[in-house]
Specification:
It contains 17 helices and eight strands. By secondary structure, it is an alpha+beta fold. The protein has one domain (about 75-485): Cytochrome P450 (Cytochrome p450, Orthogonal Bundle), CATH 1.10.630.10. The strands form three sheets. The chain has a four-stranded mixed beta sheet, with helices on one face. A two-stranded antiparallel sheet has the order 4-5. The protein has a two-stranded antiparallel ribbon with strand order 7-8. Strand 1 and strand 2 (about 70-75) form a beta hairpin. Helix 6 packs parallel to helix 17 and helix 13 (about 280-315) packs across helix 15. The longest helix is centred in the middle third of the chain and has 32 residues, at about 280-315. The radius of gyration is 25 Å and the shape is globular. It starts with a helix and ends with a strand. It binds protoporphyrin IX containing FE (HEM). It comes from Sinocyclocheilus rhinocerous.
């Protein structure tokens, strides 16, 4: 009897597996999606996900990849980006739904929100950044002040080995703090570092394996221990910091003289109370602040750390940058944004740093709000679209040596700066980075100030890895450096 049941169960299991396989084959072969590697049942192309370059090379700029049993479209190449995000801008503005994002931010904030909510928050953020002087002198002076704090702190290391991560991240985070909270923090402020730690845990989750597992099995994963639970706890620990800032702002603010993003947002909440449009709330304010920090700190600080790493790896480039700065600016005054045009080599190096560092490998995913085509291939409504910026920044047709650090990529034959339309590290279209101007200002002023004040050197016998970390924005692995005052 027992043997019969066993054989019966065995048979049933084989039958169900065969059924699943047939269904999988039918789904994959008849869905009309762009071509791509064949997905395994249940796991899809998880094994191919780290080799997306090869997939694009083999299947073209619009290909299909399966995350679990869900198809998603891999978009590569500048022409495809333009066709999708610029020519069909209104079709591709929304972000797809992911259980992990829903759990972390409930569809609020700036980065992962969609529709009317996103439009309102984005418009407001752009207007506020502009109001507080992005691209103007007031903000330039604030960044220059932070450049001095950064250089003074590095000076205290007295040319001895140190890891630049903490100083650089604090300096960059302080610029967002100035815009959002209206004040900066000292580099040894314990709460400042705690806030950064919680933010980091929260932001790393969506692209970690824990995040991927949560997206596949949300109910199961919400009951299991793991790094995702640490990240969920981080949001709860982060909230009191932000709530305290908001409370202080409410007490101290003068509506006729807003000091920062929070003041402006509180003003908007009051207006909205009158109009009954509930998109501006204190809860949403918190998520927007988290997004501004998340998108604005790690990206810029990682780029600057890559910059330092490349300068010690390619000392001849560092020397040329310093000699150009010495000639144009000298040693007695700080660099200014206006110096950019007179520093073509330095400016080209900055572009090459961004190109070669390629910190945002995948831009946050999009989806089409109706069936459409890109490059003649179907993109069905609602399917996740994964845009791969790396393919554009390493385009063989655009850069003579795409896999080498080579500032000549951005110089013409007369040594003048060469602008390239396809250089889009901030992406393009309606969802392109709203912090581009701010980031460019920060990168230029911090980089030139550091190059003016110090010569950066490797440690004796050090082997420098150019491998990036796997993260929302990829930075170099931790490294030690020496900064010798000039
Ligand atoms: C080197 C520095 C930076 C790089 C390379 C960078 C790059 C990007 C990229 C590629 C995107 C995705 C755009 C898309 O989905 O098409 C993005 C989005 C975003 N960035 Fe940046 N970014 C940088 C700095 C900043 C700064 C300083 C801020 C602060 C204001 C910021 C705020 C944002 C926000 C809020 C979004 C989401 C926009 C949306 O979904 O509408 N970023 N960034």
């Amino acid at each position: 009897m027992c043997v019969c049941v066993c054989i019966y169960m065995h048979g049933l299991l084989i039958f169900l597996c065969a059924l699943l396989l047939v269904k999988h084959l039918r789904d994959v072969l008849t869905n009309n999606m762009p071509p791509g590697p064949f997905p395994l049942p249940l796991v899809g192309n998880f094994i191919n996900i780290d080799h997306v370059d090869q997939i694009a090379e083999r299947y073209g700029d619009v290909s299909t990849l399966y995350l679990g049993n869900k198809p998603c479209i891999l978009l590569t190449g500048y022409e495809s980006f333009k066709e999708a995000f610029v020519e069909q801008a209104d079709i591709f503005t929304d972000r797809p739904y992911f259980p992990i994002v829903d759990k972390l931010s409930k569809g609020k904030g700036l980065i992962m929100s969609s529709g009317h909510m996103w439009r309102q928050q984005r418009r407001f953020a752009l207007a506020t950044l502009k109001y507080f002087g992005v691209g103007k002198k007031t903000l330039e002076n604030f960044i220059l002040q932070e450049c001095r704090f950064l250089c003074d702190s590095i000076q205290t290391e007295r040319g001895l080995p140190f890891d630049p991560q903490h100083f650089v991240t604090d300096a960059v985070a302080n610029i967002i703090c100035g815009l959002v909270f209206g004040h900066r923090f000292e580099y040894d402020d314990h709460n400042f570092h705690l806030m950064q730690k919680y933010l980091d845990e929260f932001l790393q989750l969506p692209i970690s394996n824990w995040g991927r597992l949560y997206n596949q099995f949300p109910t199961l994963m919400s009951m299991l221990p793991g790094k995702h639970q640490t990240a969920f706890a981080s949001i709860s620990k982060l909230k009191p910091f932000l709530q305290e800032e908001i409370r202080k702002h409410k007490e101290e603010r003068d509506p006729s003289n807003p000091r920062d993003y929070i003041d402006c947002y509180l003003e908007e909440i009051e207006k909205v109370l009158v109009s009954q449009d509930a998109l501006f709330t204190e809860d949403n304010l918190m998520y927007c602040v988290v997004d501004l920090f998340g998108a604005g700190t790690e990206t810029t600080s990682n780029t600057l750390r890559w910059a330092l790493l490349f300068m010690i790896k390619y000392p001849e480039v560092q020397e040329k940058v310093q000699s150009e700065i010495d000639q144009v600016i000298g040693q007695t005054r700080q660099p200014l944004m206006d110096d950019r045009t007179n520093l073509p080599y330095t400016y080209a190096v900055m572009h090459e740093i961004q190109r070669f560092a390629n910190i945002v490998t995948f831009t946050p995913p999009r989806m089409a709000n109706k069936d459409t085509t890109v490059g003649g291939r179907l993109i069905p409504k609602g399917v996740v679209v994964m845009p791969l910026l790396k393919s554009i920044l390493q385009d063989k047709n655009e850069y003579s040596t795409p896999y080498e650090f080579n500032p000549a990529h951005f110089l013409d034959e007369n040594g003048k700066f060469l602008k390239k339309d396809s250089f889009i590290p901030f992406s393009i279209g309606k969802r392109m980075c709203p912090g581009e101007q701010l980031a460019r200002m920060e990168l230029f002023l911090f980089f030139t100030s550091l190059m003016q004040c110090f010569t950066f050197l490797p440690l004796e016998g050090q082997t420098l890895s150019l491998k990036g970390t796997i993260s929302v924005s990829s930075g170099p692995e931790p490294f030690q450096i020496r900064a010798v005052p000039r």
